[in-house]
Amino acid sequence: MGFAQPAILAGRHVKLEPLALQHLDGLKDAVRDGELWKLWYTVIASPDDMEKEVVRRLGLQEQGIMLPFTVRRQDTGAICGMTTYMNIDAVHRRVEIGSTWYARSVQRTALNTEAKLLLLTHAFDELRCIAVEFRTHWMNHASRNAITRLGAKQDGVLRNHQRMADGSYRDTVVFSIIDAEWPTVRRHLQYKLEDVSC
Predict the structure, then answer these.
(1) Are 98 and 115 in contact (CB under 8 A)?
(2) Taking the model in full, what pTM does it have?
(3) Domains and CATH numbers, the chain
């Protein structure tokens, strides 16, 4: 058995299911909500490229370095995005939560807060991680703000970290939550979920 195995993580607002090709049509519909693939500072598959992206993520899962999830709304059952544990390090018990995108209609709702609470709970309480990392493009201010609101702390910025498809360079902002901080972060996220405005 590997360090991180497929699992269903469910809450009141969201259910995270192991990614599967049977989710493809729902993922295509979700990414059309906001035409997310047009955002220049992140990489999100278009409807035409979604099957290739699902296959890519499942291939990384086979290698033991990614555990991808399909994000589903609990109220309607509709698929509304994807998220993953990535850069899985079983030796040092670390994961990164990333490659996440949500349909425009569910962004800045309780769904993201609860999805992150479910992923962090599983990482710290079940996988016994010592740290969980988040990374995003310097120019992705919405993502940076969302990560900060979770309670993660900024570790630093990797300058000219990656070249984007358009030839521009990505400065990557790195955040993390460590195991000693987890009880406080968990309570913070639980409190946010008690507030319908989260």
Answers:
(1) no
(2) 0.93
(3) 9-194 (3.40.630.30)
